[in-house]
């Protein structure tokens, strides 16, 4: 399921902030799981801190959305890494992103390309023209067109949520899990693998496959990098204390690993911190508690709202 949508345009003062604000509003109107989707925007050539253009602010006011506090952001690698779906306003912007960041190819589309996937349309029909420097009426038309597109997008997101529920049953959307351990975590990893199999989760076991001594940063890096590349939705890492794998995994950009030895922390790690790796210490807790923690963690959901900006601030620390 898509959890984090990033709109990209040129200056991040007109089209992408309007699209992000409109989508945010429409998602909130729909409510439920859709409300938890994170939406942000950035510009390929933005002047960081520049305000939205006055016409964009005025246009959005007509939708009951306040863009007055918007500050332009320049597109950064970590934002791309965190996004499940990257939507540009034009084909040229998409090509520009892919030239610099080819690794996001599978999740980068022109907005109108994405929503018209099954329909015959070419790149020449995908562009949302730039209203910059044009009269207010052009901005208003641009917003009206975007709203139409975003309503199609929301229907697509809504049916993906429904499909996900059916796939996984009780716990929510279909989740891909990367599993790894050092020698001290090997036995607990086997128990967790069995639990994941029994529950029907899709997972990959990255080892180790014996109690022969290895260095935990190596195992942590394999799982954390796979999660950061979005090949998996979540990772589970186990070492003796859980400390070594959690420290190591948190060195990888885009990873938020939480060491949890109680069920409440596991729930909060998802709800408040939107973590993508659970770390466990096999020498600290027994398998019964470990499996309860795994269950609480995997069935948890990010609460969004005020926690969203906090998680975004964590991600920005990665570049300081
Ligand atoms: C291995 O003996 C142990 O140091 C490792 O599994 C882990 O606890 C490190 O944090």
Could you characterize the architecture of this molecule?
- The chain is an alpha/beta fold.
- The chain folds into 2 domains: about 5-160, Response regulator (Rossmann fold, 3-Layer(aba) Sandwich); about 170-320, Ribose 5-phosphate Isomerase B, Chain: A.
- The chain is built from 12 helices and 9 strands.
- Helix 7 links the parallel strand 5 and strand 6.
- Helix 1 (about 15-30) crosses helix 6 (about 135-170), helix 2 (about 55-60) crosses helix 6 (about 135-170) and helix 10 packs parallel to helix 11 (about 285-300).
- The radius of gyration is 21 Å and the shape is elongated.
- The model is unreliable at about 165-170 (pLDDT under 50).
- The chain binds D-ribose.
Give a quick rundown of the structure.
The protein has 320 residues and is an alpha/beta fold. Helix content is 45%, strand content 13%.
Write the layout of secondary structure elements.
Layout lengths: L3 E6 L5 H16 L7 E6 L10 H8 L15 H6 L2 E4 L2 H10 L7 E3 H5 L20 H33 L7 E6 L4 H13 L3 E4 L10 H13 L5 E6 L3 H7 L7 E3 L3 H9 L5 E5 L5 H13 L6 H12 L3
Note the main attributes of this structure.
4-stranded parallel β-sheet; 2 domains; Ribose 5-phosphate Isomerase B, Chain: A; 12 helices; binds D-ribose; single chain; 320 residues; Rossmann fold
Mean pLDDT: 90
Order of helices and strands: EHEHHEHEHHEHEHEHEHEHH
Total E-strand runs: 9
| Largest pleated sheet | 5 strands, parallel
The amount of helix comes to 40-55%
How big is the Rg?
21 Å
Spans where pLDDT lies below 50 across 5 or more residues: 164-172
Question: From the coordinates shown, what is the CATH architecture of the largest domain?
Answer: 3-Layer(aba) Sandwich
Fourth-level CATH superfamily of the largest domain: Response regulator
Distance between the termini: 30 Å
The third-level CATH topology of the largest domain is Rossmann fold
The rough form would be described as elongated
Q: Return the structural class.
A: alpha/beta
Fraction of residues in β-strands: 5-15%
Q: How many structural units, i.e. domains?
A: 2
Bound molecules: D-ribose
CATH class label of the largest domain: Alpha Beta
Widest sheet, order of strands: 6-5-7-9-8
Helix count, DSSP H or I runs of 4 or more residues: 12
């Amino acid at each position: 399921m898509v959890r984090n949508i990033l709109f990209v345009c040129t200056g991040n003062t007109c089209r992408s902030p309007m699209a992000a604000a409109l989508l945010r509003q429409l998602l909130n109107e729909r409510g439920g799981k859709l409300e938890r989707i994170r939406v942000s925007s950035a510009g390929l050539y933005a002047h960081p801190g520049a305000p939205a253009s006055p016409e964009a602010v005025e246009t959005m006011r007509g939708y009951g959305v306040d863009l007055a506090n918007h500050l332009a952001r320049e597109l950064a690698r970590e934002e791309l890494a965190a996004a499940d779906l990257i939507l540009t306003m034009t084909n040229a912007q998409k090509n520009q992103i892919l030239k610099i960041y080819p690794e996001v190819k599978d999740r980068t589309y022109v907005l109108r390309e994405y929503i018209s996937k099954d329909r015959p349309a070419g790149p020449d029909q995908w562009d949302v023209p730039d209203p910059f420097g044009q009269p207010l009426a052009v901005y208003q038309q641009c917003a009206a067109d975007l709203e139409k597109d975003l309503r199609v997008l929301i229907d697509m997101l809504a049916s993906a949520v429904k499909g996900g529920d059916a796939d996984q049953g009780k716990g929510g959307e279909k989740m891909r899990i990367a599993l790894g351990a050092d020698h001290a975590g090997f036995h607990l990893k086997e128990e967790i693998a069995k639990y994941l199999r029994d529950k029907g989760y899709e997972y990959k076991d990255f080892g180790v496959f014996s109690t022969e001594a290895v260095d935990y940063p190596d195992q942590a890096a394999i799982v954390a990098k796979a999660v950061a590349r979005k090949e998996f939705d979540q990772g589970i890492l186990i070492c003796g204390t859980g400390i070594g794998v959690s420290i190591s995994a948190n060195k990888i950009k885009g990873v938020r690993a939480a060491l949890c030895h109680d069920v409440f922390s596991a729930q909060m790690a998802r709800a408040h911190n939107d973590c993508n790796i659970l770390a466990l210490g096999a020498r600290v807790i027994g398998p019964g508690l470990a499996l309860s923690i795994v269950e609480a963690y995997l069935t948890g959901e990010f609460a969004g709202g005020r926690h969203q900006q906090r998680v975004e601030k964590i991600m920005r620390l990665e570049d300081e």
